[in-house]
Amino acid sequence: MSELLESVHWSVYDLVTRHFLASLSGDCVIEKTDAVFTIGGSERFHSKAKRLLEEGFTQIQPWLKPRDVELPSGLTVGQ
């Protein structure tokens, strides 16, 4: 029981400490891209992508780090 309580105390301490340090850290910078495709003049498709540029506070709170999402390969403007 003592070890479990110590584990819970440590988890709370770790969470509070990381939250405090993250509040003093820089922002997480994300690049977002939206692509709209029109096929045949009437069908519209949307695709979104995001990429992490600067980790910022997510270095301290990695569970908040967003995952990169890429656009389908081979897309060019005006294609």
UniProtKB/TrEMBL annotation:
Pfam family, one: Topoisom_bac
Protein's GO biological process: DNA recombination; DNA repair; DNA topological change
E.C. code: 5.6.2.1
Keyword entries, A-Z: DNA-binding, Isomerase, Topoisomerase
The UniProt record lists the keyword Isomerase: yes
Catalysed reaction equations from the record: ATP-independent breakage of single-stranded DNA, followed by passage and rejoining
Topo IA-type catalytic domain location: 1-79
KW Mitochondrion (keyword) present: no
Molecular function GO labels: DNA binding; DNA topoisomerase type I (single strand cut, ATP-independent) activity
Enzymatic class: isomerase
Matches recorded under Gene3D superfamilies: Topoisomerase I, domain 3, Topoisomerase I, domain 4
Purpose: Introduces a single-strand break via transesterification at a target site in duplex DNA. Releases the supercoiling and torsional tension of DNA introduced during the DNA replication and transcription by transiently cleaving and rejoining one strand of the DNA duplex. The scissile phosphodiester is attacked by the catalytic tyrosine of the enzyme, resulting in the formation of a DNA-(5'-phosphotyrosyl)-enzyme intermediate and the expulsion of a 3'-OH DNA strand.
Family: Belongs to the type IA topoisomerase family.
Record protein name field: DNA topoisomerase
Source species of the chain: Streblomastix strix
Upper lineage: Eukaryota, Metamonada, Preaxostyla, Oxymonadida, Streblomastigidae
